[in-house]
Amino acid sequence: MKAALQQNKKYTILIWVFSIAIPFVVAVLFSVRIPGVERMGFLPPIYATINGITAIILVTAVYHIRKGNRKTHELLMKTAIGLSVLFLVLYMIYHMTSDSTLYEGEGVLRYIYYFVLITHILLSIVVIPFVLITFIRAISGQFYKHRKIARYAYPLWLYVAVSGVIVYLMISPYY
């Protein structure tokens, strides 16, 4: 029992370190430019597609767990985490080779775009510890605790994935 508590404490510390470090590193890397590398304008549709696939996988994973297909759910969730990591890597490569694109839309669409963008960014930071805690609880067999936090992690993560696609679709004419 004591070993399990120490293990949980270790995971909790690592989760918070990652949850703070990831947004910090992303923010710092926004100011880094890879010298001699051309703008990688082909990346945004790729990482937007990854967001879309992640959203589909999340919905499918919830469907499978509700049907009692734990192994399929686990595989889908690991895939969603892997896709999220791949998204982050491609996103950072793009921003280390390219300047940010400004949204040039007008009127109400401009407000919608910035609302979706800002909530997407903020929730993409907030969701990190939720996803990591949910994942650790699942792989450590703490399914009651896993379900408890997954109720919050799932809609946050799904919103981040879907809103990422919406942001891309709204800004893509201005690339």
TrEMBL record:
Matches recorded under Pfam families: DUF420
Transmembrane regions: 12-34, 46-63, 75-94, 114-140, 152-171
Keyword Chloroplast among UniProt keywords: no
Keywords assigned by UniProt, alphabetized: Membrane, Transmembrane, Transmembrane helix
Protein name: DUF420 domain-containing protein
